[in-house]
Amino acid sequence: MIMKKYSLILGFISALTLLSSCEKQLDKVNPNAVTSENYFKTSKELEKGVNAAYTTLNGSYLVGNCYIWLHDLRSDDFVGTTLADDRGEILRGTHGVNNSYIERVWKGFYIVIHRANVVINNTVENDPDDSGNQLKNRVVAEAKFLRAFSYFELASLWGGVPLITKPVSDFSGFVARSTQKAIYEAAIADLKEAAGVLPASYGAADNGRATQGAANALLGRIYMQMNDYANAKMYLEKVRTSNLYSLVGNSNENFQEETEFNKESVFEVVFSPNPSAAEDEGDDYAQGLYRESTNGTRQYDMNTGNGVVLPAPGLKAGFEKDDIRKKTAIYEVGDTWAGGLMTQESWKKYTLSYKNAMPGNVASGINRRLIRYAEVLLMLAECENETGNLPGAIARLNEVRSRADLKAAKLSLYPTAAFPCNTPDEVLKAVMHEKKVELAGEQVRNRDIIRWRAAGKLALLGGEPISYFQASKHGLLPIPQSEIDRNIALGSAGVPAQNPGY
Where is the RagB/SusD domain (predicted)? Predict the structure, then answer.
């Protein structure tokens, strides 16, 4: 599998990007700079280029750390106790233009975009070892997927951002912000092209690369954020009817190392238990139970029970009596673990606790599943409801609740006493509930709340779930001040350089 068992060769990329992993260097240079657009001579070299984009995705600026914090702390799944520094600002809504976590995620995605652009705009032609340019075409499609994923995340978090589709070698690469709609449309165009080329699956050596199913699922996500449920449904149905994906019988298998690339995984980011051999922007450490873990969204001192981010009361109360997914997601007081009995609630997903690992900076090789088939089904349920097919929506909801371990626990199917499903609003309320308990702590809730807020549907959750939210400020993240200082063209095309409230 890519980046899992071998050391990714990244030396060549420094000559292309003039980038350093350290923030000091990122502040000094144009993060889209290259020295040669003609570096790649063969399709195999081109493949190394897209590998570099993948490795940025799993680095500490993105899925290896800051991306996880940014999404989960803006959701209603967590509450803080003693969380300090810039993460505490995000949790409390007091973040500003110099927040380091916000800045790192911005930079991280533009590094992915730059590396993808270098691959997409390559000059490799007629490689004798690549019959019919099959490898080249696949690699370019992977790069388009990664670029689309990056632009989707940027647009959903910041609104309009600079749209850069070619590698640049000087400050002429600074461009104005495009609109959010234009960014979404660019990502959609990339994904449609990628879906037509990417394979349905890979052999074991290439597991972790983008597939056709991943491209179609991401198209569904984007169209949903654009309130285009008909198109979202069309692409999500392609994933469902491909018959390549299904739900694993045991929910825990989605969060463990030994069951990676299972039949429920649509797209996952690969991590190595030996971080230094696999990434160039930060170590990958086990999450949740491990104090000051650099790849953790939740940090706990298990020896004292002094957690700094805890499952929110609303999340804990949201699990129904027979819903065993609570045990998959959360440790409760009195539960056992390697160090004895839990004295405080804490997070369980993606931790090494199932291996009886002790707390600390413990290297973890657990891949992060960014898109699961369960989410595809729940997105489809929402799309069916929004397009008037309530029975179809209920069927997709019940497909998730019929997972083997949930069925064995006798979890009731919809409609239930708590969630009658007679009207579109009642079905959407069931969708909201099911997504919360199925996907808790998986960087989905923040995006859902943004979408439901825009559609005026938060009353179904009992009102605005984010206590600090002010429409005049918190709808979008601030453009990092370092980007405003560096990019003199940022606000030159009708979209202001900075978002409202900052």
Answer: 348-502
Q: How many domains does the chain have?
A: 1
In a domain, 205, yes or no: no
Among residues 46, 67, 47, 42, the alpha carbon closest in space to that of 57 is found at 67
Domain that holds residue 393: 371-461
Q: What CA–CA distance (Å, rounded) separates 413 from 404?
A: 13
pLDDT tens column, 436-482: 999 999 999 999 999 999 999 999 999 999 999 999 999 999 999 99
Number of C-beta neighbours around residue 11 at 10 A: 7
- Closest Cα partner for 225 from 379, 77, 342, 115? 379
High-pLDDT (> 70) share of the chain, % = 82
Nearest-Å Rg of the Cα atoms of the chain is 22
Closest by CA to 365, choosing from 474, 256, 289, is 256
The pLDDT tens digits of the residues spanning 13-36 come to 333 333 333 333 334 444 444 444
**How far does CA 127 lie from the centroid of its chain?**
35
Inside any domain, residue 172: no
In a domain, 23, yes or no: no
**CA separation (Å) from 156 to 52, 159, 387?**
24, 6, 23
pTM: 0.90
Q: Is residue 329 domain-resident?
A: no
DSSP structure string for 110-136: HHHHHHHHHHHT------TTSGGGHHH
Angle at 228 between CA 430 and CA 436, to 5 degrees: 25
* pLDDT recorded at residue 295: 37
Nearest to 20 by CA among 121, 111, 119: 111
Could you give the CA distance from residue 128 to residue 417 in angstroms, rounded to a whole number? 65
In Å, what is the CA distance from 473 to each residue of 93, 477, 478, 498, 502?
9, 8, 9, 11, 7
Contact predicate 366/286, CB 8 Å = yes
- How would residue 169 be classed by pLDDT, with cut points 50, 70 and 90? low
Higher pLDDT, 333 or 152: 152
CB 461 within 8 A of CB 425: no
